[in-house]
Amino acid sequence: MGKLDGRVAIVTGGGRGIGKAIAIALAAEGARVAVNYNTSNSHAEEVVNEINAAWRDRSESQGGSDTSAEHAVAIKADVSKSDEARQLIRSVHERWGRLDVLVNNAGITRDKSIRKMTDDDWLEVIQTNLNAVFFCTTAAMQPMIEQKYGRIISISSMNGQTAAFGQANYGASKGGIISFTKTIALELAKFNITANAIAPGFTLTDMLSKVPEAVQDQIKSKIPLGRFGLPEEIAKAVIFLAADADYITGAQINVNGGAYM
User: Is residue 37 annotated as part of the catalytic site, yes or no?
Assistant: First the structure.
């Protein structure tokens, strides 16, 4: 028995990196998972196939008959656009009849010093990283209010808590997520809906792996635990908030190896 048996979850930007790890972890605990993507269809389908194959194997090993059921699905939507974000929420609710966990994970970077940052650099990041959280959350809260249960988990960043050169847009978007989360936690608590944020530090994803090794070593030297985080470690925090943290809301969990305290 999984901690999230019978639950339905959406992970925005769920085809790669942290989002992929979160989707797989939610499914491993029994949730049906909608893996949202915008451009990386092949990556999202790989995640879905991995989840569904794991469910078939588990069912067969336990002598069950649940070998063809759909436990994950890939859904294309540009969540930076309000109509597509809200259609994503509607389609998942219509497919599975409920919505229990929303993980706002989709995000982009357009790093430049403020002297070089263009209006488009600013607006693209704010639209994808922050406005999408508003679009998805305000759509998801309706079925959650009706069922008197919901878990809204948004992926912020250590760089939304402390300064990072060249990330005025990214830092503003991630800091905004933390403030937004506190407000909706206050407003939605009476419906048994919790809202929390996770603030990862430097996490070993494709983006970080492309940084020159010498620069990686410099970064790690400033992290008390002496290493980068793993996407699976962020996913563990999501599972905690989704399954075990019934009396935690309006909080932020820092998963950064001590890089920001």
Answer: no
